[in-house]
Amino acid sequence: MGKMRLKKGDRVRVISGKDKGKEGKILRSIPDRDLLVIEGINMATKHVKPSQKNPKSGIVKQEGPIYASKVMLVCPSCGAATRVGRGYLDSGKKVRLCKACGEIVDQV
Questions:
Q1: Which domain holds residue 85?
Q2: Same domain as 65, residue 47
Q3: What is the 3-state secondary structure (H, E, C) of the chain?
Q4: Domain containing residue 21: CATH number
Q5: Confidence (pTM)
Q6: Quick one: 103 and 50 in the same domain?
């Protein structure tokens, strides 16, 4: 497994699978297994029993994890799905770069 270049809060586009073309925000990342949980992607139904925390039982829809290789970052400046590069500022700070337009995505 390589280093995951996506993180919580990033906007991503699914590039393969049943949800191809959909976009969403990363809710959670699981870097040791190379998985991401994305808002509105890979929805699964789950049967929930009543409990103190959740007194109403029933069927709940929730997001399941998806492999990080199936998504691409959506660049905030150009709006295209792009690969993520690494770079350094003059001050030595590490930054993530958009490979399509070369703009800085954010500081790491």
A1: 78-108
A2: yes
A3: CCCCCCCCCCEEEECCCCCCCCEEEEEEEEHHHCEEEECCCCEEEEEECCCCCCCCCEEEEEECEEEHHHEEEECCCCCCEECEEEEECCCCCEEEEECCCCCEEEEC
A4: 2.30.30.30
A5: 0.86
A6: no
Distance, in Å, from the CA atom of 74 to the CA atom of 87, rounded to the nearest integer, reads 18
Query: Residue 92 corresponds to which tokens in the numbers above?
Result: 């030595």
- The whole-number mean pLDDT for each consecutive block of 10 residues of the chain, a chain of 108 residues, reads 85 95 96 95 94 90 95 92 92 91 84
